[in-house]
Design goal:
Helix content is 38%, strand content 24%. The protein has a single domain, classed as P-loop containing nucleotide triphosphate hydrolases (Rossmann fold). The protein is α/β, with parallel strands linked by helices and 178 residues long. Strand 5 and strand 6 form a beta hairpin. Helix 1 packs across helix 7 and helix 5 runs antiparallel to helix 6. The termini are close together.
Length: 178
């Protein structure tokens, strides 16, 4: 059975870096989905499809998203192509949302494999400061949110060390079940 792999983790934990590294040489039966976001294409960070709020609302009204949510003042969507890919037997990896894991579980049930990317508070703080996008107050808020326990049933993937090590761990987690 094809799986929807829902990768979640705090901002700065390395999700985008991990997905980009995996895109270089993905496992044979894995597709990495992009998200549709109301954020400019050149905003940095993840590989996404930039939509205006009007276009996002239009697509939502036409039922073109398998899942959608709002966070941090932006709209995020995963297109219906996910369902086609799963039907054709492909595992699909997405950059998910912790707050919307229940929505994904309700739609995909046993096909959903939640993966939680973890990182120590010290490493996370250093990464957030290094990227220079947030103030110290915003960094403190992100660290508080990151301190929450991972959701139940989430497979843990530690990203404190070298990205190559995390990528190896991810590949092992993605190996087909016997």
């Amino acid at each position: 059975m094809a799986r929807l792999i829902w990768l979640i983790g705090p901002s700065g934990s390395g999700k985008d870096s991990l997905l980009n590294a995996l895109r270089e040489a993905p496992p044979r039966n894995l597709l990495i989905a992009h998200r549709y976001i109301t954020r400019p294409a050149d905003a940095g960070g993840e590989n996404h499809i930039a939509l205006t709020e009007t276009e996002f609302a239009r697509r939502a009204a036409q039922g073109l998203f398998a899942l959608r949510w709002t966070a941090h003042g932006l709209h995020y969507g995963l297109g219906l192509e996910l369902d086609l890919w799963l039907t054709r037997g492909h595992d699909v990896l997405v950059n998910g949302s912790r707050q919307h894991l229940a929505q994904a579980q309700a739609r995909y049930g046993a096909r959903l494999l939640p993966l939680c990317l973890t990182v120590s508070p010290e490493v996370l703080a250093a990464r957030l400061r290094q990227r220079g996008r947030e103030s110290e107050t915003e960094i403190a808020r992100r660290l508080d949110r990151a301190a929450q326990l991972p959701p139940a049933g989430c497979r843990l993937l530690n990203n404190n060390g070298a990205l190559s090590q995390t990528l190896l761990q991810l590949r092992q987690l993605l190996e087909p079940l016997p």
